[in-house]
Amino acid sequence: MHENKQIIIDGWRVYDLPVEYSDADYEEARVEITNQVRNTPGLIALFEYGCIPFPGISDMDFWAVFSDDAGKMGLPLQPALSEKTKYLMSHQITLFAEKHYRKMLYFDPWTTYAWPNGQRLLYKSDGIERDLNFENIKFTKEERDILSLVLVEEYLGSINSTISFYAKKKLPVRHILETIKTCVYIIEEINLITDRKINSTFPEELKDLRSKWFKIDRQEAVKKLIKLFYDGLLISFEAAFSLSNWASRRSEWLRISDLGVERINFLNHFCLDKKAKNIYLNIFNDWRVFTDFARTPAQALELSINSCREVEIKLGRYSKVIDFCVVFQPLELAAIYLGFISEKGLLSDNLRKNTFSNLEEAPVFRPKIFQEKIKMINEIIEIYNNKRVADTSGKGWHFGNGSFQNSFEHKTIKKKILVFWLKQKFWRAINAAIKI
């Protein structure tokens, strides 16, 4: 069906190679997916998010909208989908209650560009006459800019998650092509809103490669992608520095203790050594470190790449190998993250537990429109947590590799010990990286 074999090119292990499909194949997949979900209790609509510009490379993403009074939210745990359909929708179906889906522009203000009349409706429950698509909310330019750049900051996380692939010279082709395409939107928004611009031919080069992927020599295509992979990673760090400048000018300084962030000190089991005095804010959840140690985007990227390694966890008969990587970010960018955890809510509280700092005070990003978005996110997590179907994570069907954090979602004693052990590895990796 699709190519699982691996090839070696210039020392890179290349796999997850795209398979050429047609628009008709995607249409068949839509029918198959719709037939699987239509009898799900509480489900009132299924929307397709995005479009398919490059069949065989592009994947399909969906929103499953449940009624606000649904007793449970969850799709079949093991849908009987064909291998082809699983390939074409390689990621996930995300679950939303109706009232939150209607407010989609708080989460993704860019959707008005591509879908001014809403996203593609694939299924609507019988008896539902009302419009279920997102409201065309009118934001001021300042509000739209804030929501847009906060979304950019969120996208940086998905790009940064691929750094370990680059460090280990692993190239899951389709995954990387789909991930780095986000850099096109990032460049557009950074250059539209911030003072620190990104000058790059990346958008044109990526579009050219994706359009010609099945027409040019495979080795040539892979070599072009390796270059674009690095360019995309660097763009994500350039965007981080641009956002850092932008957010810091719109933030207020608050005491770390008032935010509920734990201080790092000599009594802390996760303390840093003396050479790490300028590592200011550390987030275990996504391996990020906010610091002024890295002065340029290129230096921050290089530090991050050099920190990557495989870590094997062993506890009795339990064994797990994960890719471990510390992502170095400019200090002031922490303002957006701290703005998030400054609000009350389930997700904010959980993130706060794994955040540590050397600082007495830190910049905190707290515009009203941003706080409204955070409150909605916390509410979504809390509602879903109370309505979740066993063994689901709020993402519906999910193909491919799950994240390490999700595998430790239910904190048994064994898993708490493993997380504690990994936190020590995290701090040691920070120390090792800044000594380079």
Describe this structure in words.
- The chain has 436 residues and is an alpha/beta fold.
- Helix content is 45%, strand content 17%.
- The protein contains 18 helices and 16 strands.
- The chain has helices at residues 23-37, 83-88, 98-101, 104-107, 111-114, 141-160, 163-167, 173-180, 182-193, 202-212, 218-248, 256-259, 297-306, 334-341, 346-353, 368-387, 404-407, 413-434, and strands spanning 7-9, 12-15, 43-49, 61-66, 93-97, 120-124, 170-172, 251-255, 262-263, 279-283, 288-291, 309-315, 318-324, 327-330, 355-357, 361-365.
- A hairpin with a 2-residue loop joins strand 12 and strand 13.
- The longest helix has 31 residues, at 218-248.
- The protein is globular.
- The protein starts with 6 loop residues before the first strand and ends with a helix.
Keywords summarizing the entry:
about 425 residues, alpha/beta, 3 domains, five-stranded mixed beta sheet, four-stranded mixed beta sheet, 18 helices
Number of helices: 18
Total domain modules:
3
Helix content: 40-55%
Principal-axes shape call:
globular
Brief overview:
The protein is of the alpha/beta class and 436 residues long.
Helices and strands in order:
Layout: E1 7-9, E2 12-15, H1 23-37, E3 43-49, E4 61-66, H2 83-88, E5 93-97, H3 98-101, H4 104-107, H5 111-114, E6 120-124, H6 141-160, H7 163-167, E7 170-172, H8 173-180, H9 182-193, H10 202-212, H11 218-248, E8 251-255, H12 256-259, E9 262-263, E10 279-283, E11 288-291, H13 297-306, E12 309-315, E13 318-324, E14 327-330, H14 334-341, H15 346-353, E15 355-357, E16 361-365, H16 368-387, H17 404-407, H18 413-434
